[in-house]
Amino acid sequence: MANPVLVETWRGGAVESFHRGALAVVDGDGAVVATLGDIDRPVFPRSAIKVLQALPLVESGAAERYALTDEELALACASHNGEPAHVHTAAAMLAKAGLDDSVLECGTHWPNHDVASRALAAAGATPGPLHNNCSGKHAGFVCLGCLLAGAQDHRAFLAGYVRPGHPVMREVGAAIEAATGCDLAHAPLGTDGCSIPTYGIALRQLALGFARVASGIGLSPGRAAAATRLRRAVASAPFMVGGTGRFDTRVMQALGERVCCKVGAEGMYCAALPEAGLGVAIKVDDGNNSRACEVVMATLIEALVPLHTDSQRQLLASLADVTLFNWRGLQVGRLAAHASLRELVGPRHRANRAMV
Amino acid sequence: MANPVLVETWRGGAVESFHRGALAVVDGDGAVVATLGDIDRPVFPRSAIKVLQALPLVESGAAERYALTDEELALACASHNGEPAHVHTAAAMLAKAGLDDSVLECGTHWPNHDVASRALAAAGATPGPLHNNCSGKHAGFVCLGCLLAGAQDHRAFLAGYVRPGHPVMREVGAAIEAATGCDLAHAPLGTDGCSIPTYGIALRQLALGFARVASGIGLSPGRAAAATRLRRAVASAPFMVGGTGRFDTRVMQALGERVCCKVGAEGMYCAALPEAGLGVAIKVDDGNNSRACEVVMATLIEALVPLHTDSQRQLLASLADVTLFNWRGLQVGRLAAHASLRELVGPRHRANRAMV
């Protein structure tokens, strides 16, 4: 059976396109608080679980050994724009471990942020692995690897750190398993854009993982403390998680520690909501994350997080019901939650929206 | 009821994302040769019908008056990359009408082609309306408008040429109605990215319009001749229709006049197949055109157009079953037609594919 429509794109007075998908909102005990669509089919969470993948960096003591700052820990949880601040921060993390970008195995692409990309070109430069949107996560892996290497040669130990069997990836996998309860040995396995493994995990389990990050329930004390440390780092340096204009950055700049959300490729979104002790996981079937997922996440935040100020309410309303303009600045349409999603989120969403 | 899945994205051994949609293959008499999903719901065809929108440019005599070349007529049917050749050709069309880019009402954006965009930035330049992917279509509108203006001041006559009631848009609308049989006065109306009207038209009618372009059946002799002229122009200058790396350009470079295909925004694709006298119209529900539509169109071309050479078969196979690589060049997955589409297209598709 097809998943329900979550988001519609309107042009003039007609629906032009629409996005189907599924979502799960789960508490720390695994109780499903809200759900739409199939939440038991395994999906590749991609970059939406970078917070889970960064847990060993903190829990192992590597973050402490290399004196990683909030900015650097936030960058370890980021899919960043490749703006200068992101690039410099990733380089600083590697320098603290006594290494440079030649150790990175994430690959190279032009900065995701068009302005940053054109600025690089205008300077006559070309991108390196530090511009890869995952360079901070990989710099975190390198720091973790240096700790695990002990007395061994760090570069030699790190070679192939992206492979599923490497000690770094085994630590990362163990953290994912502990948070989500998913047995990765029996999960579908794919290779992510930055070459690390990505495992097929049900939305129900991903939401549980984020409820545990939000609440600490079900995590060992060390992992729970690491989750709190990462949430605080991200909240204090939200620019590092995305960058100029990015949804995650804008939402966390406005809401601080009250929301810890993260986009992933191919229509994935996850969030920890600490006040309510809830975790959220979303997958849009068609893989659209730049518009569909954001509308779903904004709508859920409006419903699940009390918004205290007009500017918070206005920001979330503008992200949940997006006005579309064309190249001459004419208003041509909008993106908005479909009735199925509006129905699900109910009264608090309507109350917040009514106050805008 | 949900439209069927047309295309799947695979990562490792699992389906990561999938695209639903509908398609119609129709002959010049309106008989439906093949169909999947709902082909009677109105959809905005966007830029997929630029060939129809360019018919009045030729039929009116404007193309002849301004001695437009094949390259220029192809650019009038284009969603181009904004590469230097596209920009220069659009400027040349305007110059032939005694005007410049200040008359264009399409708006401005950076070139769609990343390399062209960065090259512009590296040269210290910024884009103008000629870089807009629709600038050739608009330059064609300007040429048509200058003819319609007669003795009136051309600039004054052209002001607001993008509005539905302007004489230029009335001519364009009449051509769309004649080709598709759709009564635009009662169709959903939206504003396109380049500010001209876009009308909601059923896939069945859009496919009929392209079958008429393919065969001339049902068109006045003047419109049929204009359709033939445009198909030949596009086939002789396929770089102008898209540009470096673009699906339409690559397919028409390989197949010449045997396929006249055109992408549109939001998951639209149309094609005229002159040998079989067929028209094709595709809409992917979620609006994805950069991967989903192309796989559907390539699969239909494999099935409907006899491929005579190994290079033709290899090109279409590579576009219908796309290998996906990550930033390090590792093979991570593929895009391919879903069983529902493979089943529809049947034996000839399998025969072409078996020869690859």
Characteristic terms for this protein:
8-stranded antiparallel sheet; homodimer; 356 residues; alpha+beta; 16 helices; two-stranded antiparallel sheet
| Class computed from helices, strands and strand pairing of chain A | alpha+beta
Q: Count the E strands of chain A.
A: 12
Question: Percent of residues of chain A in beta strands?
Answer: 15-25%
Q: State the oligomer.
A: homodimer
Describe the structure.
- 2 copies of one chain form a homodimer.
- The longest helix of chain A has 16 residues.
- The mean pLDDT of chain A is 96.
- Chain A has 356 residues and is α+β, with helices and mostly antiparallel strands.
- In chain A, strands 1, 2, 3, 8, 9, 10, 11 and 12 form an 8-stranded antiparallel beta sheet that branches. In chain A, strands 4-7 form a two-stranded antiparallel sheet.
- The two termini of chain A are 37 Å apart.
- In chain A, helix 4 packs across helix 5.
- Chain A has 16 helices and 12 strands.
- Chains A and B meet through strand 2, strand 4, helix 6 and strand 5 of A and strand 2, strand 4, helix 6 and strand 5 of B.
Task: Give a short overview.
2 copies of one chain form a homodimer. Chain A is an alpha+beta fold and 356 residues long.
Topology record:
2 copies of one chain form a homodimer.
Chain A: E1 5-11, E2 14-27, E3 32-36, E4 42-43, H1 50-53, H2 55-59, H3 62-65, H4 70-76, H5 84-96, H6 114-122, H7 135-149, H8 154-158, H9 167-180, E5 189-191, E6 197-199, E7 201-202, H10 203-215, H11 221-236, H12 238-241, H13 247-255, E8 260-264, E9 268-273, E10 278-284, H14 289-304, H15 310-320, E11 321-325, E12 331-337, H16 339-354
